[in-house]
Structures are given as C-alpha cells and as structure tokens.
Amino acid sequence: MDRPIKFVFLILPNVHLMDLAGPDQTIHEAIDYGASFIIEYCGIDAEVQSSAGLHMKKPLHFSQINLSAGDYLLIPGSSVTYLLSPEFARNQSLFDWIRQCHQQQIRLVSICAGAFVLAQCGLLNGIACTTHFKQTRTLQAMYPLANVRENILFVEENNIYTSAGIASGIDLLLYIIERHKGGYFTHKVARELVIYNRRDGSNQQISVLLQFRNHIHTGIHRAQDYIIEHIYQRHNLGALAEIANMSERNFTRIFKKETGITATYYINLIRRELIDKFLNHKDLTLTQIAQKVGLMSEKQVRRILKSVDT
Q1: CA–CA dist 116, 75 (Å, integer)
Q2: I need a labelling partner for 131 at 20 to 30 A (CA). Which of 159, 197, 221, 225 fits?
Q3: How far apart are the first and last CA of the chain?
Q4: GO molecular-function annotation terms (predicted)?
C-alpha cells in the first residue's frame, strides 16, 4: 500500500481565514471519500491571530514537522503588510526550512498572498506564479525575477503551485486531488462542496467527468453518476429516466436544459475520453476498447473518435 500523502498548512500571523478554510475543507472532503491523505498544521508563533481577529490555539512549530518527497506544504495568504514587514523578514530559519522542503521534492502550494512567502525565499525566481489580482503588480515590483502571471486562477511550475486566493485556492486543491485520485473522485468532492464545475487555472483541458455538472438537479446528477460508473454498459433513455425519477420525455428535456447537451451526446463524450485513454495502452485492441466503453464493435469506436469532440 502506498503511504498516505501529507498536507501541512503553515499558518502565519494575520492569516486570511478563507485562504485556510477553503483548501482545508477540500482535503477533508477527499479524506471522507477515502483518500489516503493526512492534514497537519504548523506555524512560527505560540498563538495565531487571523486577519479577522480570530485567535487559534498554538500550532506545532514548523521545525517539528516531518515531510517527505511528494507531500505538500500549503501557505495560506496573510496580510501583505505583515508579509512585507521587517518583523516577518527576520524569520530566516523559516525561509531556510521552506527552501529545504523544496530541495527535498516537497510540493509547495501558496494561496493568495502566500506567494510573497515563497518569493521571500527566492523560490519564485524565474518561475511562473500568481497571487490575488490586487497584489500581482506589487509581487512583480518587489520580486522582479518572478514571472508573475495575471488573470489566471492558479499556475504550477517546478513543484510550486500558486493561486489567486480565496475560491481559487479550492480550485487549486481540486486540481491537486484530481492528479492523485482521478476526475470522477474529484467530481464527488467538488459536488460535496457544492462546486459542480471545477474552474481550470492553467488553461489545460478539464476532464469530461467534471464538466456539465454546474447545476443542482439531483435527478440529473444521479443519472450522470450512473452513466460514468456503468459506461461499460449500453444505456437507454428509459432506464436513465427511471434513475432520475422522471418520465423519459421529461428526462430528455431536463437533461438538455441543465447541462446544455443531450444525454446521448453526454454518454458519447464520456466514451470518447475513455477511448482516448485506452488508446495509450498499446496492448488493447479496438474490440477490447469497445467492450470497455459499452460499444459493440471497432466501427462504433471509430465513429465516436471521428464525430465526438472532447
């Protein structure tokens, strides 16, 4: 069994609560669905006061934390005024520790103004990065060697992930979870958070498993879940309508209204994405691939590859 992946939050003075709570809750939901993740918290002070004035009990000192290659160190945003202050700049032992984490292949994740901490460590030099839109110019001016990106939710380079903050921190954590657990698992986490359509931060394609879910119709969600979980079967609209607890005519109308596409086209989009993945396995024939996605022949596989865009 693979070892659990550890997510450690570095909670600094004047932390922004949503930058902390959003990603934290996202990881907790993944754990509730069975992900082998561990969450820990650390800081530099005996007690942490958030930017909203809420006091939090003493976290572990960062020097007490054990991380391994492949784990994540997350830095939620704090007050930029504090992060640029002489007081914070005196934390050289913290900056050394963060640099050491990066050298040990620990993935560094900043939420919002947390990017200023990574910049202070010199880790954003030559690296594409981002932060809250109100602070991108300040970040670039203070750290001219950083490649600060604007108008983007999050960006990843060289094991460093930076995000624009608040809600985009959730988007980034969903992206990270998808890399470990796949699209359908991440869809379930996003749905639990009532985020039906994960926003993409770096302009790469979003899995079809996560698309067309930006609605709150539970019957249609049940039908979509069934389609994904039983894509190896043939589907008919009557059976899907029963799963959605509707008449076939109403199901057809509501599915198109809520998703923007027909149920049949949705099924074929799911099939097309899986076919593309299976084609990477050179030992599978088109006939075998057809069986895995609920089709009857190579001809049907070729037809979907030709007619369905993902």
Answers
A1: 10
A2: 197
A3: 34
A4: DNA-binding transcription factor activity; sequence-specific DNA binding
pLDDT in tens, 19-43: 999 999 999 999 999 999 999 999 9
- On whether the CB atoms of residues 168 and 153 are closer than 8 A, the answer is yes
257 membership: H or E segment, kind and range: helix 248-259
Considering only CA atoms, which of 159, 138, 137 is closest in space to residue 150? Answer: 137
Domains (ranges, CATH) in the chain? Answer: 5-186 (3.40.50.880), 212-307 (1.10.10.60)
How far is Cα 266 from Cα 252, in angstroms, rounded to an integer? 12
Cβ partners under 8 Å of residue 229, min gap 6 = 184
Rounded Cα distance between 302 and 224, Å, is 24
Q: ∠ CA(174), CA(211), CA(114), 5° rounding?
A: 25
Beta bridge partners of 55: 49
How far is residue 40 from each of residues 6, 9, 59, 64, 226, measured CA to CA in Å? 7, 6, 9, 11, 35
Longest dimension (CA), the chain: 69
Q: Are the C-beta atoms of 71 and 6 separated by less than 8 Å?
A: yes
Q: Say if CB 74 and CB 98 are below 8 A apart.
A: no
Q: What is the DSSP letter of 161?
A: E
Q: Which amino acid is located at 284 in the chain?
A: L
The pLDDT tens digits for 131-161 are: 998 899 999 999 999 999 988 889 999 999 9
